[in-house]
Write a structure and sequence with these properties.
By secondary structure, the protein is an all-alpha fold. The chain has a domain of 52 residues. It is 51% helix and 0% strand. The chain contains two helices and no strands. The longest helix is centred in the C-terminal third of the chain and has 29 residues.
Length: 87
C-alpha cells in the first residue's frame, strides 16, 4: 500500500466539510407567547333549570327569558375571548 500524502488527507477533509453543507437544516419553530384570557371570560352563566310545573304562561315566559339571557351571556364572553386571541 503506498503511503498517504498530506494532500489526500486534506482532500478528504475538504470533501467532508463540503458534504455537510448539503444536509437538511432543521425547521425553525417560533413559539408565540400565549395570551392571557381573563378567568371571568372562561365561565358562562348556568343554564336555568325549567320549573317543575308551569302554573301560568308567565312562568314559561320567564324561564325562556332566563334561558335566552344565559345564552347571550355565553356568546358575549366567547366574543371577548375571540377578541383576546385573534387580534
Amino acid at each position: 500500500m503506498p503511503p498517504r500524502t498530506p494532500w489526500a488527507a486534506l482532500t478528504a477533509l475538504l470533501s467532508a466539510l463540503l458534504l455537510t453543507g448539503c444536509a437538511d437544516t432543521p425547521p425553525q419553530v417560533a413559539l408565540a407567547p400565549r395570551p392571557d384570557v381573563p378567568p371571568d371570560l372562561l365561565a358562562c352563566q348556568d343554564q336555568p333549570e325549567p320549573p317543575d310545573q308551569f302554573r301560568e304562561d308567565a312562568d314559561l315566559a320567564y324561564w325562556i327569558i332566563d334561558l335566552a339571557a344565559a345564552g347571550d351571556d355565553c356568546r358575549s364572553r366567547l366574543l371577548h375571548v375571540r377578541e383576546v386571541l385573534v387580534p
